[in-house]
Design brief:
Elements (H helix, E strand, L loop, with lengths): L9 H30 L3 H7 L2 H21 L6 H10 L4 H20 L1 H15 L1 H37 L1
Amino acid sequence: MNPLDWSFPIAVTWLIMFGIIVVRAGGTFVLGRFARKGIRKFHRVEKIMAGPKYRRAEDTIDRFGAPVVALSFLTVGLQTVVNLAAGTTGMRYRRYVPALAVGGSLWALIYSTVGFLGFKAVAKAYQAEPGLTVGLGLVFVVAIGGLLIGLRKDRIPAEESASASAN
């Protein structure tokens, strides 16, 4: 079932996409909660999780994590990790569910409107000029890779000098 071929009104497409994200992200959160319960059975882990530093970190995530959860839906590749972390740190449902609703609504809006238009544009471009489309795609991937490598190189000397001054 290709969403690009759907002939539903945008509102129905939005509802379908919202349902998908609630099940996916909410399921990841619940998996995190189950993992939290399971891992606490190990004595060493329980000792760490009962400590004051860990409790403070959990309280901070619980208190300020909802905006992070909501904004994670505007990223690619970060949603799953954020939702899993919210579950494993024990974020309360009364904070998580509204964040999921807001972030999921934005995600569904983007993908039911503009997101699919981008896919359609790339598909049309590929039909018209496959070589040019693939070439531009490769240039884009190489540019992003170069940017990431460049940013990493800038950060490495700062980390090394910080660790050297600490010793």
